[in-house]
Design brief:
- The chain has 196 residues and is an alpha/beta fold.
- It has one domain: Spore Coat Polysaccharide Biosynthesis Protein SpsA, Chain A, CATH 3.90.550.10.
- The protein has helices at residues 32-40, 72-82, 100-107, 136-144, 151-155, 165-171, 184-195, and strands at 5-10, 26-27, 30-31, 46-51, 62-64, 87-92, 115-120, 123-124, 128-132, 160-163.
- The strands form 2 sheets. Strands 1, 4, 5, 6, 7, 8, 9 and 10 form an 8-stranded mixed β-sheet that branches. Strands 2-3 form a two-stranded antiparallel sheet.
- The longest helix has 12 residues, at 184-195.
- The chain is globular.
- The chain starts with a strand and ends with a helix.
């Protein structure tokens, strides 16, 4: 169990490229949301779902975005505000292959940082990352500011521990933890892999 941390499954996106709600897409016997939740529940005392508006079909506690804002930063702000723990682990609902080993390793890097973010293919993975509640002011400033309302802009304002691809590959050789299902083709590929 990872102490002092709430897990947050981010499920408030538009799913434009997918053409339908990602959270309820089936992968094997479970939805994507259920797959991610099944990985997180043994690791965290509380798992909540970040949504734009309440979703009665989801049986986990939910936190809704501020209607004045949209996008993943709005979800992160709402989750940090709702959390009663010093940390949250935020993960996208379309990342069903994230492994406990990856999550536990990232958790160990939190000391003296406001966020722990993997770097894969030279790009930060902000929706498979730990965030301290102490960064809520930075998140709000990024949401309300005149600049870019992006995770990259946010991370530039924070003390971040970036975890290298090599470190992640030692725990997850194919880096499947970071395979997110954005399109119907991604889902078909994931289903093929699951069938093998």
């Amino acid at each position: 169990m990872i102490a002092n941390c709430t897990a947050v499954i981010m499920a408030g996106g538009d799913s434009r490229r997918m053409g339908q709600d990602k959270a309820n897409l089936l992968l094997g016997e479970r939805t994507l949301l259920q797959s991610v939740a099944a990985t997180l529940q043994p690791l965290f005392a509380e798992v909540i779902v970040s949504v734009r508006q309440p979703r009665p079909e989801i049986d986990l506690p939910q936190v809704c975005d501020d209607p004045a804002h949209s996008g993943p930063l709005a979800g992160l702000a709402a989750a940090l505000d709702r959390a009663t723990t010093p940390w949250i682990f935020a993960v996208a609902c379309d990342m069903p292959f994230i492994t406990p080993a990856v999550i536990e390793y990232l958790a160990l890097q939190r000391a003296d940082h406001q966020a722990v973010v993997p770097m894969i293919g030279g790009h930060p993975q902000p929706l498979a990352a730990f965030y301290s509640r102490s960064c809520l002011d930075e998140v709000r400033a990024c949401l309300h500011g005149k600049g870019k309302h992006s995770f990259r802009a946010l991370l530039d304002t924070m003390r971040v521990c970036y975890v290298s691809e090599d470190q992640m590959q030692a725990l997850d050789p194919l880096l499947r933890s970071f395979f997110d299902l954005d399109t119907p083709q991604d889902v078909a590929q994931a289903r093929n892999q699951e069938a093998k």
